[in-house]
Specification:
Helix content: 25-40%
Radius of gyration: 19 Å
Strand content: 25-35%
Pfam families: DUF5838
Distance between the termini: 22 Å
Protein name: AcyF
Number of strands: 10
Shape: globular
Structural class: alpha+beta
């Protein structure tokens, strides 16, 4: 029997999704209805609403879902969700990379959190599902992930702690990629030895912006050499106002007075270097 508190959480998640859809005029993209149904059924899961701003283009059909307490059953729920998406005949998801990462004897006790998500576009080939594993103290699987991504010196230099996020993108047209995200808290980033490592990898503008974040993840992808910076904002209102971006202002004005648990921004380091931050993502954790 579902508890009253669980029902409240589920109803809140659906409300957050629907309010986001209405605020940003999201039309129907496959498979948004399947994810909404998942949100309606998932017990004790949280939701994060997101928007991507790409110069004058705006992509708001982005949502992430995560169990508040991880067990192996949640992994099965995500794969079941993906299989439901694959019932449409023109959808083909490529699981080869994630199967190589998981292998035959993956120790799920080393996973502290999972996240699944959807990023939908009018261009069907650009739409994708997402699956992230937050692993802790699992060096052999971290090495597997690094080898799948493509070994990079700048990635290894950011080996600050044993907590890493490993992500997979599943495009609806059959392409898949892997991403790696070394993470660190504000306190970790201020340690002398960590500062020395960061200075060998990140540019001066990237180093300077870290003070705005309570924690940061540095994203590495298969598709290009550009590093991505994901930061949990300490003062979202001030930071986003200072971007002087009309679309970002529109997004944040909707969330500014809501009860948001965490606000995160993602941008390319190279844009930070050039001083033109025109391509970035905003994430609002609502539950």
């Amino acid at each position: 029997m579902i508890s009253t508190q669980t029902m409240v959480n589920i109803n809140h998640n659906l409300r957050h999704i629907n309010e986001h859809k209405q605020a940003f005029d999201i039309e129907y993209f496959y498979p948004l209805d399947i994810f909404e149904n998942f949100a309606e059924q998932a017990q004790d899961w949280g939701v994060e609403c997101s928007c991507k701003i790409d110069n004058d283009r705006f992509y708001p059909a982005r949502f992430n879902f995560f169990p508040n307490k991880f067990t192996f059953e949640e992994v099965s729920l995500v794969f079941d969700l993906f299989r439901r998406v694959e019932t449409r005949c023109d959808v083909k998801l490529d699981y080869q990379t994630i199967h190589k990462f998981l292998g035959n004897n993956f120790d799920f006790s080393k996973v502290t959190k999972i996240v699944t998500g959807v990023d939908l576009r009018e261009d069907f080939s650009a739409s994708r599902l997402k699956f992230w594993f937050w692993i802790d103290n699992y060096p052999e699987k971290l090495e597997t992930a690094i080898s799948l991504l493509g070994d990079r010196e700048d990635l290894r230099l950011l080996y600050v702690n044993n907590s890493w996020l490993v992500g997979f993108d599943f495009y609806l047209n059959g392409k898949s990629t892997i991403e790696l995200y070394p993470s660190m808290s504000k306190e970790e980033s201020q340690k002398v030895d960590v500062k020395l490592k960061l200075a060998k990898v990140l540019s001066a503008p990237a180093l300077n912006i870290l003070d705005n974040f309570s924690s940061v993840l540095i994203g590495f992808t298969q598709t290009n050499q550009d590093r991505l910076i994901y930061g949990y904002l300490i003062n979202p209102n001030e930071f986003i106002d200072n971007l002087h971006n009309d679309i970002a202002n529109r997004v944040h004005s909707f969330y500014r007075d809501k009860k948001v648990l965490n606000t995160m921004i993602c941008f390319k380091e190279k844009e930070l270097i050039t001083g033109s931050l025109d391509n970035f993502n905003l994430y609002y954790q609502m539950s």
